[in-house]
Each structure stands twice: as C-alpha cells, then as structure tokens.
Specification:
The complex is a heterotrimer.
Chain A (H helix, E strand, L loop, with lengths): L1 H12 L14 H28 L2 H19 L4 H27 L12 H11 L1 E3 L5 E9 L2 E7 L6 E5 L2 E4 L4 E2 L5 E3 L4 E2 L2 H6 L1 H6 L1 E3 L4 E5 L3 E7 L2 E3 L4 E4 L2 E6 L4 E3 L17 H8 L1 H36 L7 H13 L2 H11 L6 H6 L9 H30 L2 H9 L4 H29 L2 H5 L20 H11 L5 H33 L1
Antiparallel strand pairs in A: 1-11, 2-3, 2-8, 2-11, 3-4, 4-5, 6-7, 9-10, 10-11, 12-13, 13-14, 14-15
Helix pairs in contact in A: 2-3, 4-18, 8-18, 9-13, 9-15, 10-13, 13-15, 14-15, 15-18, 17-18
Chain B lengths: L1 H42 L3 E6 L1 H18 L2 E6 L4 H11 L5 E5 L3 H6 L3 E2 L5 H6 L2 H7 E2 L2 E2 L2 E7 L1 E5 L10 H13 L17 H10 L5 E3 L5 E6 L4 H13 L16 H6 L5 E4 L4 H6 L4 E4 L13 E10 L5 H11 L3 H10 L7 H10 L1 H9 L4 E2 L10 H12 L4 H16 L2
Parallel strand pairs in B: 1-2, 1-3, 13-14
Antiparallel strand pairs in B: 3-13, 4-13, 5-6, 7-13, 8-11, 8-12, 9-10
Helix pairs in contact in B: 2-13, 8-9, 9-16, 9-17, 13-14, 14-15, 16-17
Chain C lengths: L1 H28 L18 H8 L5 H32 L5 H11 L8 H14 L8 H10 L3 H12 L4 H8 L4 H12 L1 H17 L2 H6 L8 H9 L4 H30 L3 H7 L1
Classes of the chains: A alpha+beta, B alpha+beta, C mainly alpha.
C-alpha cells in the first residue's frame, strides 16, 4: 500500500487541477477485485485448515470456515458497503484487543494470581512432585536407557555393588550378563538394545514418564544418566478430596483454592477458583484504597487534564507559529520539535528523573538552586507534568500541523479581509475547524494520560511518600497505586488487578463518553 | 492518471493476493510434513529451551551448544529483558515456557507456589562441591529447587588512596569520610544508593547491625512470614541509627544518591567508600581507582552487619516439554566447574562451586574477598511474602533519611506489610 | 516584526524540546558514560560509546535497528490501510451502529493493556503450535498483534481529518456514477495525503517504541527490537556500565524516525486539500 501514499500527491499536485471525474465502470477492476478477494480467502483457508484438522480442533475449524465464507460473501455481494471497509481492521481488533479485554474482565471474578494460576489437577501434581524425597539409604543409580523390543526400560547400576538391575513399569529385577563401562554406563545387555545419549534424549518424555515401582517408592530418572528412588511425602486422596502425609491432612477448600489443614494453614500450591464479587468488594472496602481514593482521583484528573491541555496548547501554538507561508527554516524547526517524540520514551523518562536529582541533576545545576524536585509534593507534581508535557507535545504538534493543512486558507484569508484580528480569526475559524478533527484525539489523549502508568512509574514511581503511609504517594495515579497493591506485595494478583481495572475503566469511560456526546454536534455542523 | 490509480489499486490487491497465495503454496507442502514433523523432530532429539536475562545469554551459548552436540539435541538460549519471573510464570502456565529458567534463588518461593519448577536431585557429592551458603539458599521446604552457579553479596569497596585502612566500625568510616569531605578530597561521605524510594537491599547490613530485623524465625529457623518485625522496638532503634546517618545527621545516606549514580561517583573519585556488589567492579576499574574489598562494617557495639546473599540458579521448569533433558542439563551438566568458570569470565560474580571459586581466585582476588565479606550473610528469604517487604521498607528508609520520625515510619511500614500479608 | 516573534517563540519551544537530548548526547560522547553527571558539557569527547555499541558482541545493535525499522515500516503501512478504510466508512457513510462503533473504538483503548499479556500468551501459545510461522519468536506474529491496535486511535485521527474534507467532492463523483471503491481510491486517497503522512509517522513512531508486547514476543538476541534490546542494556545490575552505550543507542534510535519524517514532511505540509477545494 506504500504506493498509494507516494502516488497520491503527484496525482493532485498539478496546480488547481480538478479532481478526477470517474465514469461508471463495471470493468476489469471490478472483476479483478472480486477474484482477488476469493483468492485471498482461499489462500488463507488453504494455509489455516491443515494444522487445525491435524490437531482435531473441529470447533475452530468450523468457525474458520464460517468466517471465511462470511467474508467471501460480504465482498462478493454489492450490499453491506460500510461493513466492507470495517471488517479488515475489526477482525484484528476483535482477536487481539477485544478478546483480551473480555478475558481479563472475566478473571476479575476469580482469584487468578500467584499461587492460583493453574487448575486443581496441576496443583496436585505440583504438590506431589514437590514432596518427592529420596528414599533414605537408597542408592543413586547410574542410569542407562535401553529398549526391550519397543518398550523403554531402565538399566540401573548400583555404584557401590556394580549390580545391574532392569527397571520396567512392572518393577525391578536383577539382570545378569550386562557389560558395564568405567563410568557406570551399561555398554550392552543381552536381549536389549542399549540407547546412546542422543537416542535416549530423543525419547526424553518417555524417560521422564517411566516410574519403576519398588517396595514403597518409585525409581525415576533424574536426567538421562542417573536415577533415584524417591517417595512422595504428600499424596492426594480423591476419596476425601484431601492431601495426606507428613502426619497431617489438608482438605481442599474450593472457596480459597487451597488445601487447608485443621490449623488453617495451607499448602503453598493453590489453584484458580471462582470468587464471585470478592475482588470488587475488596476494591471498595480496602481501607488503603477507599481512604485515599478521593485525593488520588482528584490529582489523577488534574494530571490528565493538564497533560492534554498543556500538550495541545503548546503543540498547537508552535504549529500555528510555523503555519505561515513566509515562515523560514520550518524544516529545521519541525525536526527539532519532533525529536522528543522520536526518542524511546522509557529512556527519556529515566533521563528526566536523573535531571531532577537534587545533588547530581542538571536542572538544579543550571538554575543554581538546591531543590529536591521529586522529593517534595508540589515540585514532584510539577515535575511529572513538565516531563509529560515534553513527551506529549510533539504528538499534538504533528496532528495539528496535519489538521491545519486541511483548513482551506481562503477561510482564514476571508476572515482577515473582513477585518478580523488574527486572534478573532483564530477563535472563529481556525480553532473550531481544528477541534472538529482533533476533539476525539483530545478525548483519547485524556484517557491515555489518565492511565499513564509509565510516566509515573519511571519517574517518581508514585513518590514522594508521606512517612505515615508507604502505599499512596503524592504523584500516584489510580493505576499506579492500585497496581502497587495488586502486584507489589503478595505476588501478582491478576484477578484483583482486573477488578481494579474495571473500576478505573468505568471512570474514564464515563468521562470520555460524556465528552464524546458533545462531538455529535460538531460533526453535524461541520461535516 | 486514472489508469495509474487503477493500476496501483490492482497491483496492491494482487500483491496481497500473491503473497497470501505464495505463503499458502509454501505452506501447502509444509502442511503434511508439519503433521509428520513431530516424530522427525523427536528422532533428531528435539530441543531444549533455556531462558536467561541479556547478560547471560552469550556466555551460556557455547556450553548449550556443546550439550546439544553430546546429546543430539538443539539447545536454544532465549533472552528475556524485563519482568523475567512474571513472564516465565505466565508463559509456563500457558504452555509456552522454557525447559530451563535462570534466575535468583529468592524467586523459588513464588515459583514453587505456582507449581512452575521441579526439585533438582543432587548427589551428596555434588552438594558438597558447592558452598554451603549456596545450597542453603536454593533449599526451600527441605527440597533443593535449583542448581546454584554464582553467589553474590554486597561489601564495602574503598578507595585505598583516600582511605588506606579498612574501617572497623560504621562510626570510623563516617568519621574518615566526613574528614575527607571537609578537606575537599571527596564530595560524598559514603556512596550507597538510597533514592526517593529507598534501597532495602543495600541498606540491610547497616539495618541489621543496628539491631533491626524483617521476620521472626520459625521452629526450623526459616523466616516466619507470620511475624513481621519491621515495626518492633529493635527495628525502630535501627531506623533511628539510619536517621542519624541521614541528611539531617551525618549526611552519609542521601536520597540524591541513586542506583544510577552511586557507582559512577565512586569510580570518579567523588567518595572514598562504596557499598555495592561484584557488578560494580568493572566500572570501578574503568575509573582507574585502586580499591580493596572488605565486609560492610557494623556499628560500634552493634550486631554484625550481615548482607543479603543472592544465589543465581538454574531451575527446571515443571511444564517443560523435555524434562529429562532439562534435569540432565541442570543436575549433571551445569554443576561442572568449567561451565561455572565460563559464566564467571563473562560476568564476574563469585562462582558457587568451591573448586571454580578457587581457580578464579588465583587470577582475581576480588571474588574471594566478596565471598569472605558475605560469609555471615543471610540468604535472601525465598518465601513469597518477601515481596511485601521491599517497598514499605525502602520508603521507611527514605523517610528517616530525610529526617522523619523513625517510630512513625517503622509503624507505617509494619502496618502496610501486615495489611498485604493479612497477618 | 511579527515573523521575528514567531521565530523567537518557536526557538524557545525548540530549546525546551532539545535540551534533554543534548544532555543525552553529552552522556553518549562522555567516555565515562553516565546519565548521572551534572554537566551538560562532557568531560571528554570520544565516539567510543558509539563504536562499542556497533561492535558489541553482547548487543547486536545493528540487527535491532534493522528489525525495528522493518517492523515499524510494515506495521505502519498495514495499519494505515486498515484504519483508512475504517475511517472512510465512519466519516462518509451513515449506518446503524456508527456512533456506537466509534465510541466502542475509543473506549476499548482505555482498558489498561498491561493485563492483556496473559491472554496474549494464551492466544499465541495456540497459534505457535498450529502455525509456527505466526507464533512466538516471529516477526509476523508480532505484526499480527500490532494490527489489532490499528483501528484504535488512528481511525479517530483520520476520521476527524476526513470530516473536514468537503463532502461535495465525493457526492459529485457519486453523481457521476463512480462506485464507492473508486471514490475511495481515486478521490479520497489523493486528497488526504497530509493525513496519511501524519498517521503513518505516528504509527511508525508508535511501533518503534512499543515495548510490552515485543518483550514477550522476541526472545532471540538477534530478533529483538531497539526498545526491547535497549531496555535489556540497563536492566539489572549492568545499568551503570552500559549507560554510555545506552545514551548512544537512544540517539541512534531517533535517526529512522527523523528520516521517515523528512521523507513524509513534504506531504504533511503540501497544502493539497486547499487546492482541491478550489477545484
């Protein structure tokens, strides 16, 4: 599609050349485009179907075919014109944005997080595996993997006695006549095919899976060259839905997703369970959240508003200053102005933080002062806003520059001829037209800054913190301080974080939706 | 012009179609072989995937390749730059994690509670080859969960031109540092990172020497998450000592000294003492400083200034696709002296294998000095609850360094930690 | 006089824009390589940091650079097309659910993306098994993922611009019997070059600095993008030792963006629409 961008200006570049006047053509283009659509659909199907069929995912396969058929139909018919334009982007949007968001929201009703990531079966496996200890006094066998026919077996050499045993799923038996090398590896054994290292490695999963039962334990491979007899200290009993061992019993508690004993202690490994609205009520009842909510929300809105208005004001004013036919050096200026945006933001946030350092920072040095910028509430807030202004204004500068090109110069010139001052012309003509194009961007920029995690996390990380409360800092946004609660302590609590996100999302969405309603009027007036 | 636009549109569409067809054509023959590829790959031995952080990928590669050749498998060393532990957990859970993960031993508690790693069985002989501290660190709930390869702890690095003698106490060190500052020979009394959010890791030896503690101990001597001691009277006293060293006191602890500038200040000769770890040495050498390494001193009549000890380890992922190989690699291959040495050469941190450490010592006395400085150190608690400590502790540190009330800061930290651990 | 005022104002803003970058430049040519120095003027000047960066074994910087530019170019062109198509429909057609669709597009952007990582892992674990060519550790998978965000803000941006292009133009074409596709390709596309150029640039920059997804996607040192690779340089304990190289890398990162800007600049300021309205 690169071609279009390059071709387009040349087409229209002729001075005052009228726009092309197309004629009705049900032409080759029409036919070709239809064929192309079919070809693409077929190609995607050809590529996508075989692996799905091989994996036996019939539901996905059905879905894929249905979607392909739908898309093919959509582009072959002459109806549903808007949908034709919307579908390509929407497919990706649904798969990679909408689906993740929806899924995240569903985790808000679970205890998904560290200690509760997997399902119960996985937790049981982990508990049992983690409790396997080497049977006291049992030898550390050196292991050779061999084949008995098609069956994978272990040849176990006791390092003390050099006695070779044959280990199979049925048990351990004595094996005579095997040739043992110096390293303890079996070189050959009657009736068995001894596998070399690469051959054994190739059967890795089988090697891990084989467990040779002994009196009261199991011999399992430990890597490919050693095997030990171990015994699980903790064993799950489906009958009582509990884990027994070490002289205690832990019973499954489906409310918490843990195995809990009589004393109320739980085993480390838990599983994911549905907790209903617990996460939401935690957000509402958590004293750290509710006690500071109003203050943080106020600062958060202020931060987002000032960031948007500041970046827009600065970006637009420079764009206007450069938007003059007799302005010289615009190319140079423009490059300088977009540089902040061209730098990796995370790097520059760190640079700014260091520039604000009291004793070693550039800013104090240049100004000849000794201010603890990020250590005091007022200056820290000023600092993060200044940094955000620096990072964000080039974006506004660029979009305003683009939008200004779309405003016919005649309009502003007409205003000037009518005797309007430049300020009035700007207020009456330029600004309203700019806002038609840019209001939605301002809204989305507000939403972005409302949740601007990085701008805070990489500069002040929420600080400065009052001595009496290490959890809510002076520059904390809702998202930074709630995520500190969800991820800082007690590991990652995804469910809780998702519930928090739902709340924050609701706040931003309401504000934005109200603002969005106002754009309807603009659209009708100027469109 | 119209024709050209038409041409462009048609070309573009065709190009899309062609690439799609192209990929489908190449995919069509590939597809049957894809279903057949599982056994073929297995015949070739499959792959072993290792995840590491950026600084360890290069040194591991040759050994990974050698292991691959010996066992007829492909070993891939992949690099994760950020949030390694969380990425590993998420990827593992979803089934696209590695077979082997490299990380610090204090991850173990969290990895175990998520069922993400398996115990590693080491023979008695192998265990004896490691420094006891390393084995202690990777032991969790009585099981060894990783093969240690490097042990690291912080120590006091001093500029021997400015301060020829190792200080016996923190007081001596402050006195000497202040004197040097007065004479204009240095700009800072002590280079230790504090920053706006504190640095619990670096300040811990001093805190411990002042009598402070994080957790009580269980019957078995492990840290007990049910007893958080940050707000205890002893810890308050320790915070008061830190306050005395802070900005309103001796000026040795300063929030303007951060993780970004403290080493460089020392390397630039702007302070005589640096509290840091083996990772600082390359920078210090670059600055041309003559230095010596000793243990962080303790307060006069104080408790020992025990640093945290961190142990870098190899973990076997529970949900790896090739666990037998992973076990083989971790238990029997990286416990090899040469591997430990190569990792040291790439990134000079004292090896956990005693034999490797001795070999390294001959050419580089620093490793042994760091080891010596950390001999009384405390392995960083591997319990998952430790995650709740770092930030409140750091913020309490900053509060007292700026001259805040020690009792209030300690109580606030205690409250925050108890709140998040639901004690 | 008025022009002078304009120049003075722009120069002040330029100074604000550039001075932190000068600081980075100073760190990059400072042999001691630190971002923590107080000085805007380096203590010495050398290009060692740049040389180390380009010859480093640990950090295949040239590869990162190439990867980033490639991904950013492909992704920005593809997302440009997708969002332009959607913007055209939103701006020029009236259909049921239009306002709702627009609002939904706006709102979906407001959900914190950070948590989506878990789901991304879920999706792409499946994809990696079925279609390795689009799975983890591939550029194509990452590109697919980026296309998910194509509609987001870009559609709004272009729709806003398109709303300012007089409707009479395409209405006239419709009367002449042109199909919607013809209007789109022949009437609208040529008219909106400045918009396309701005959006392309924004998409390019956005992809260049994208970090969260690229970090979990690209795991071979050679397959990384600049943002991910550079983050690795200062992650962990090595941050001090690498600051000089990091500063140099930061500067070089800006080069492709400035290059793309120079290339697109003439379209951005071509004032094309003004002429078209006249016609």
């Amino acid at each position: 599609m690169a071609l279009d961008v390059r071709e387009a200006p040349r087409e229209g570049a002729g001075p005052a050349e009228p726009a092309p006047r197309p004629r009705r053509e049900i032409t080759t283009a029409f036919v070709v485009s239809r064929i192309a659509v079919l070809a693409v659909a077929a190609a995607i199907l050809l590529y996508a179907v075989p692996p799905l069929a091989a994996a036996g995912s019939w539901v996905s396969l059905g879905l894929l075919c249905a979607v392909s058929a739908l898309i093919a139909y959509l582009y072959l018919t002459r109806r549903f014109i808007p949908v034709k334009y919307l579908v390509p982007g929407t497919v990706f949007l649904l798969a990679f944005q909408v689906f993740p968001v929806v899924y995240t929201v569903t985790t808000a009703f679970t205890n998904f997080g560290d200690g509760h990531r997997g399902d119960k079966a996985a937790a049981i496996t982990a508990i049992e595996t983690g409790s396997v200890r080497q049977a006291p006094g049992s030898p550390e066998y050196s292991l050779t993997v061999a084949l008995r026919g098609e069956e994978l077996v272990f040849l176990l050499v006791d390092p003390a006695t050099k006695q070779v045993s044959l280990g199979t799923a049925d048990g351990l038996s004595r094996l005579d006549g095997a040739q043992v090398g110096v390293t303890g590896k079996v070189l050959s054994a009657p009736g068995l095919t001894v596998l070399k290292a690469p051959q054994a490695a190739a059967r890795g999963p089988e090697v891990s899976a084989l467990a040779v039962p002994t009196g009261d334990g199991l011999i399992k491979a430990n890597g490919l060259s050693r095997a030990v007899e171990g015994k699980a200290a903790l064993v799950y009993d489906a009958g009582c839905d509990c884990v027994r061992g070490e002289g205690d019993t832990w019973t499954a508690d489906e409310g918490q997703g843990y195995f809990v004993n009589a004393k109320g202690e739980h085993l480390a490994q838990g599983w994911q369970v549905n907790v209903g609205l617990d996460n939401f009520s935690r957000v509402l009842t958590n004293p750290t959240i509710s006690g500071y909510f109003a203050g943080v929300l106020g600062w958060n809105i202020f931060f987002a508003l000032v960031s948007v208005l500041g970046t827009f004001g600065l970006g637009m004013s420079v764009a206007l200053a450069l938007h003059h036919p007799r302005m010289r050096g615009t190319r140079f200026y423009r490059i300088a102005l977009i540089l902040p945006y061209a730098m990796p933001a995370f790097a520059m946030l760190l640079v700014w933080r260091d520039m604000f350092n009291r004793d070693f920072g550039l800013i104090n040095q240049l100004l000849g002062v000794n201010i603890d910028w990020l250590g005091e509430l007022g200056t820290a807030r000023f600092g993060v806003i200044l940094v955000n202004l620096w990072l964000g204004f080039p974006y506004m500068f660029l979009v305003t520059t683009g939008a200004l090109q779309a405003i016919p110069r005649e309009l502003t010139e007409a205003a000037a001829i009518d005797g309007a001052t430049p300020w009035r012309a700007f207020r009456r003509v330029t600004l309203p037209l700019l806002l038609v194009a840019l209001t939605p961007l301002l809204i989305s920029s507000f939403a972005y800054n409302f949740n601007n995690f990085n701008a805070i996390a990489l500069t002040t990380d929420g600080g400065p913190f009052p001595a009496e409360n290490p959890q809510v800092g002076g520059t904390d946004l809702l998202i930074t301080y709630t995520f500190r609660l969800a991820f800082g302590a007690g590991g990652a609590q995804f469910g809780f974080a998702a519930a928090i996100s739902v709340f924050i999302f609701t706040i931003v969405a309401v504000i934005s939706a109200v603002a969005f309603r106002r754009t309807r009027k603009q659209e009708e007036i100027y469109a | 012009m119209r024709m050209r636009a038409l041409g462009v549109a048609a070309l573009a569409t065709l190009a899309v179609a062609a690439t799609a067809c192209g990929s489908s054509q190449s995919a069509a023959p590939a597809a049957p072989s894809a279903s057949a590829s599982a056994p073929t790959a297995a015949a070739g031995g499959g792959t072993l995937v290792i995840w590491a952080d950026p600084s360890r990928v290069q040194p591991l590669k040759p050994f990974a390749d050698q292991f691959g050749t010996e066992n007829g498998v492909t070993v891939e060393v992949k690099e994760i730059s950020k949030d390694n532990q969380m990425t590993f957990l998420t990827a593992s859970q979803q089934g696209s994690g590695p077979d082997i993960m490299i990380g610090a031993h204090d991850w173990i508690g969290n990895l175990v509670q998520n069922g993400a790693i398996d115990p590693v069985t080491l023979t008695e002989e192998q265990k004896a080859a490691f420094s006891p501290k390393a084995i202690q660190a990777v032991t969790f709930n009585g099981q060894i969960y990783g093969a240690p390869y490097a042990v690291e702890n912080i120590a006091l690095i001093r500029n021997t031109e400015l301060a020829p003698d190792a200080p016996a106490t923190i007081e001596d060190m402050i006195e000497k540092g202040t004197e040097l500052k007065k004479d204009g020979k240095v700009k800072e009394v002590l280079c230790i990172p504090v920053g706006q959010k504190g640095d619990a890791f670096h300040v811990y030896p001093m805190f411990a020497s002042g009598g402070g503690a994080l957790f009580g101990a269980t019957a078995t001597g492990d840290p007990d998450p049910k007893q958080v001691l940050l707000g205890s009277p002893d810890s308050v006293k320790a915070f008061e000592k830190l306050k005395a060293l802070g900005e309103k006191g001796d000026g040795a602890l300063r929030t303007s000294l951060t993780n970004e500038n403290y080493i460089v200040n020392f390397a630039g000769g702007k302070c005589a003492y640096l509290v840091s770890g083996p990772w600082a040495i390359s920078e210090v050498k670059k600055g041309g400083i003559t230095y010596d390494i000793t243990a962080v001193p303790s307060f006069k009549d104080g408790k020992p200034a025990t640093p945290f000890v961190g142990v870098q380890s190899f973990f076997v992922a529970s949900k790896g696709k090739n666990k037998a190989l992973a076990q083989e690699f971790v238990a029997n291959y990286v416990t090899d002296k040469d591997v430990a040495k190569a990792l040291y050469d790439a990134d000079p941190r004292p090896p956990a294998l005693t034999a490797a450490l001795q070999e390294v010592q001959a050419s580089d006395p620093d490793a042994a000095k760091f080891m010596e400085a950390g001999k009384d150190g405390m392995p960083m608690p591997a319990i998952p609850e430790m995650a709740a400590i770092w930030e409140p502790f750091g913020i309490a540190e900053t509060a007292v360094v700026k001259g805040g009330d020690a009792a209030k800061a300690a109580a606030a930290a205690q409250k925050a930690i108890d709140g998040s651990l639901k004690n | 006089m008025r022009m002078t005022l304009r120049h003075v104002y722009v120069l002040i803003v330029c100074a604000f824009a550039v001075f932190p970058i000068l600081f980075v430049l100073s760190a990059a040519i400072n042999p001691m390589g630190t971002l923590a120095s107080t000085d805007l003027l380096p203590t010495g000047a050398s290009l060692n940091n740049f040389a180390n960066l380009l010859t480093s074994d640990t950090y295949p910087f040239a590869r990162w650079f190439f990867n980033s530019v490639f991904i950013a170019l492909v992704s920005s062109f593809a997302s440009l097309l997708l969002s332009m198509l959607a913007a055209y429909a939103f701006s020029r057609m009236r259909f049921a659910g239009r306002r709702v669709g627009l609002l939904a597009l706006l709102l979906i952007q407001m959900f914190p993306q950070f948590l989506a990582i878990v789901t991304i892992f879920m999706i792409f674990t499946e994809v990696t098994e079925l279609y390795p060519a689009f799975g983890f550790n591939t550029v194509w998978g990452l590109l697919l993922l980026y296309l998910g965000g194509a509609l987001g803000v870009n559609t709004w941006l272009m729709k806003g611009f398109l709303d300012t292009v007089p409707k009479e133009l395409d209405e006239a074409a419709t009367v002449d019997g042109a199909t919607h596709a013809q209007i789109f390709w022949r009437v609208i596309m040529p008219l909106v070059t400045p918009i396309l150029a701005v959006t392309a640039l924004l998409a390019f920059i956005g992809t260049m600095s994208e970090f969260l997804m690229a970090n979990v996607f690209l795991r071979d040192p050679e397959s990384k993008t600049l943002a991910v690779g550079m983050y690795g340089m200062i992650a962990g304990d090595h941050r001090n030792a690498n600051f000089g190289m990091f500063a140099a890398a930061t500067l070089i990162t800006a080069v492709p963006t400035v290059g793309v800007f120079l290339w697109l600049q003439k379209y951005i300021v071509s004032g094309l629409t003004a002429g078209a309205v006249k016609g």
